[in-house]
Amino acid sequence: MIPVPVEAVRNTKTVMEKTEKLENFLKKIKEIYGEEVGGSVLKEIESKPSISFRINTLKASVEDVFNELTDQGFKISGGEIRNCYHIEDRLPELSLSRTKLVEEGKIYIQNISSMLPSIVLDPKPGEKILDLCAAPGSKTSHIAALSSNKAYITAVENNTGRFNSMKRNIEIQGVSNINFIRASSQNLPSFYPKYLNYFDKVLCDVPCSNEGLIRNPNECDFKFWNTKLAKKLSNLQKKLIASGIKMLRPGGIMVYSTCTYSVEENEQVIDWALKKFPEMQIIDLDLKGIPKIYGVENYKEKTFNNEVRKAVRILPNKHFEAFFISKLEKKQF
Questions:
Q1: What is the pLDDT of residues 272-304, one digit of tens each?
Q2: 148 and 285: one domain?
Q3: At what angle are helices 160-172 and 138-146 packed, to 10 degrees?
């Protein structure tokens, strides 16, 4: 009997694991969205999305940036939200990430879906805003731009490398009125009790399983994806949203968001927060022109508070990645 090489056995095992994970992923999408919408989601993610970016009005005018990119040979279409655009076509030798506009912080490459939590937060001049999971600074800098650099932002990140990278990223974009804190976000109420019931608004864009970034599932290796990951992350996400709620003043607004499909990381976290913190209520979202469905109230054998239907699931397509967004208000008693 000829022995089978160890490497061949390993390769076969890897292929089998990938096939099983792919099947579980496809099944999961249809369990969440149903056969029709789920099938549409899977069809849309077979291809890569277009490159999207926002113009940083803290450092440049929309007209100047638009004209410069057009003159360079980029074909641009208007985005669904203010100051945000898509690259529809370009000359082969051009790369948006290598332009001086990016280097100088005049534009920021970011998927449209990732910009929506900051839009929903609706930051205003003079407001005290907490970005609970701030690195790499994409949403932090967007909040600054939306408030014309007149909001007072506190950006929190625990990892030293990500913290320093975030600071550089934000400084390039000309952001001011910002307080950087290197600390564990889930333990922030203990470390900084002065911030309890302090902030007008809190952005809780939490670490997640990043399923919304999966494109062309048949080619994905699913190396870091498994069916247990969402449950594990859900425990962390609950700690983070609890921390944010404690820091939010009565009457204040919180936005909770992820870039994943998992109900365990989305509706289930919101359902838990509503039970744990009865002072919190969900606010309706009206995102006109954005491909979406509303929150899932029933999943497998679980039934959630029917208020979770006010949350929004952004559906992936050519311009959007999958995202989950929920807007909550802390009641004033």
A1: 999 999 999 999 998 988 999 999 999 998 999
A2: yes
A3: 30
